[in-house]
Amino acid sequence: MSSEPIERRVSYLGDRLRATCCQICGKEYFEIRDYCGNCGRKSFGKMVSTDLFYEMGKLEACTLVNEPTNKFTKLGNYIYGVISFHDGKVRVPGRLTDRIIKDSDEIDFSALEERNVVPRFRRRYSVDKSDVIPTISLAFTFADEYYPYQAYTICKPVKEYDSPGIVGYGVYTSKFRIREANIERSVPFIDEDSISAAVEAGKLALTHSGIASSDVGKIYVGSESNPYAVKPIASKVAQVLKLGEEEEDVQSVDAVDTEFACKAATSMFKDAASLVNYEKSHIKNAIVIGSDNSQAAPRDCPGGELDLFVGYGAAAFIFGKHDVIAEIEGWYSCTSDTPDFWRRDGEHHPMHGGRFTGDPAYFKHVRKAAKKLMERLGLQPSDVNYFVAHQPNAQFPVRVAKELGFKEDQYMPSLQVVKFGNTYSGASPLGLAAILDVAKPNERILVSSYGSGAGSDAYSFVTTSQILDKRQRQKMTVRYQAQNPFIEYVDYATYRRLKMGM
Amino acid sequence: MPIRPAIVAVGRTKFGEHYEKEPEKLIEEAWLKASMEAGVERRDLEACYLSDYFLPITNKLGLEEGFLSELTELHVPMEVTRSFSSALSNACNAIQSGKHSIVLVGGIEKMTDRWDKIRDDLMLLEDPWSYYAGCTPEANHELMLRAYIKKHGVEGDDLQKFNLALAHISVKNHLHATKNEYAQYQRKITVEQVLNARKEARKPLGLYDYAPVSDGAAILILVNEQVAENFASKPVYILGAASATDYLSYPAREDLTHFIVTELAMKKALKTAGIGLWDMGIVELYDQSTVMEMISLEDLGFCQRGKAWTTVYESCRDYRGYYEIDGKKLFVNMNGGLKADGNPLGATGGAQIFELVKQLRGEAGERQVKFEKEPVYGCALELEGFGTKGYVYILGRNKT
Known about the structure:
The complex is a heterodimer. Chain A has helices at residues 4-14, 109-112, 194-209, 233-240, 269-277, 359-377, 395-403, 408-411, 417-420, 427-438, 466-471, 478-482, 492-500; strands spanning 18-22, 28-30, 47-51, 57-65, 77-85, 90-101, 116-123, 135-142, 160-172, 176-180, 183-187, 216-222, 245-247, 250-252, 254-258, 285-293, 312-322, 326-335, 341-342, 351-352, 386-389, 444-448, 455-463, 488-489. Chain A is an alpha+beta fold. Chain A folds into two domains: 4-142, no CATH class; 160-500, Thiolase/Chalcone synthase (Peroxisomal Thiolase, Chain A, domain 1), CATH 3.40.47. Chain A is globular and about 70 Å long. Chain B has helices spanning 23-38, 55-58, 64-72, 84-96, 118-126, 128-132, 139-151, 157-177, 191-201, 225-231, 260-273, 290-299, 308-317, 337-341, 345-361, and strands at 5-12, 47-51, 78-81, 102-110, 215-224, 236-245, 280-284, 323-325, 328-332, 377-384, 389-396. Chain B has 15 helices and eleven strands. The model of chain B has no long low-confidence stretch (mean pLDDT 95). The longest helix of chain B is centred in the middle third of the chain and has 21 residues, at 157-177. Chain B is α/β, with parallel strands linked by helices.
């Protein structure tokens, strides 16, 4: 039933909540207008386009939808209402997302109205499995709950560095968690997937970096849970976040998805860094996102052992040479053909080659990459302030850190798997982000990622003084998300339902 | 108006679920009633103006005109629009321009055939952006209610009365429908039922606040006033007709607490008719929900903004068959309104005109209104979408 031209238009306008403002009279419109209704022909050429996606709105009036239209039934009960931006100058319809409303809940609408909301990029509604997945940002959450509003302010760069490095980063995990055994794991809301997490993390990274989205020339998205077998996540992120110069509704940005199990994103750190360091590329910044709605078969099925560990989340890093917060000091990668974990095309869930997991796979590669990099840079474990390893569970990264000679205060701060679960491509990036949240200037961070199949990328970063300057632009820190009072815990059945999505 | 279009006959089917009848059967049934009433033969018709909101979707019927041509063996001009009022508007233009002197205006809808998908269709056609955001056909009514009570500061005891007043609207419309043999729901309901349904729904409006999904057809025969008396002893004249249009998307409009289209269309229609608001004794308005009936009373000008609910509340405490507004009587939705008479979209406007014609002629049987003064005028308000289009027709027994 999906019609391509209409779908293109709806996502083009709705994913970014494009609005237009008349520069003559100030009247604003949702969608793109060439003319102002008040000013007529003289307004031609004077209509300025904005993305409400970066703004904060207000819920003006709302009601409960408990008998949704057919395509929305999987959302269950939800709050629907009118959202205004810019003091009521422009209004849009909107659904409040990230809320599980039980059939017995009594809603006090006046307690919800007049509160500030933030637009969220989500799946629009259910479609057939073979259809294009429709998305929209007419989904909102309260700014005073899990996801705070953070203004996106573009700052003029003040310093150019010799080596490329990270200029901004962002981590996104959902507000839902399941708590089992000794770990908590993030659970996507039903309208979330690896695409929406990638967009959210990218948005947070842009906000944190303070660079103009038009100055991003390349985007890499690494994931092993792209809901499409063929269709990049990166193109969606590029369009929603308006990366590169926009001309005739095309973004002048190179976008590509990468895949190598859990190291799909970390592998591209060096590519992004090299690219921005190569003058003739004319690329000032490149963004790398690792995003996964980590897949696992249900617990009682083959491959179901993973179901105890999988999480949901994404981490994004922008590489550049201006206003760097952590310079790249060096890297080392290694690869071997090891069948420890795979998912065949057309299968929903990955499989584990039990005897290959652990020593011949994770430990061998992670240890090798970290060791080789330290050798290359002439580093001793004591020269490293923080060690970040891929974290499929809590035991592996601790063991490998100890084997490499690191102490608890070096490896524990990055150990986030107990809070968010294994976020696959986002796992070691999430650990790195947790360190960037707390690191002081001139500290060394050693990262050693792991991707089944198998390989590892090790990087050494050294923080700069600007890490402190930019910190105020990051409200969604890893700790904030891990210890948020608005976290909602769900039971196993709800977790499976939410994870399967719309 | 230079030439007044005159309605010489009306006909309709019962509204409700007609799963056993093809759409053509419904329109045939309405046509037979109207044609016999006026003694009009199908070959007298110079053109047909038809309406259906979404027969192509519900019944996979495109080119409805062709079906009607097969049915009638007529090869005259035929046009299809969305609402009965828009069909009537085109018919009026044709009569007034002198192009045609006898035309048929007919509306048909068969929504129950697509019971499982109809709310998606309704919402998507009403406003795609709202649909994409998760809106339902009901949600906008509830948002309008929320916006209204906030703007007018209705709270505490007043809010309770306000909610009761809305419940009374539904009870009143069901009461009226008990005397309407064509109505979908010819049964009384109680205030408790309305309130309980809201409680069950856990939101401002419940099942009994909303008009149903219906099948049905309605027809009228419209002629040039000069020939009107050849067909009817009591023709009813269309003295004022006006429409207005607003944004598709309800949230994008300037004021969320009322419909500008109703206000504009009514003002224009009154001006054309050359009569005053209170020359009107009877109104058929578009109560897709109880809140819509209440707000329409304000938009049409009968009640002050923010005050209609007090009028309804006071009038319904001891309901005598009409709303009492500043000592004046206003008969509203005597056929039971959309709530109880039914709401087969393309035919709904036809049932409204049907009711006005019967009442103005004094042929409404048990539900006949006793007007206190002559001449008497009535008006009908029909909306398309959620206030995207508004049509007002002012009808009178006299030419002026």
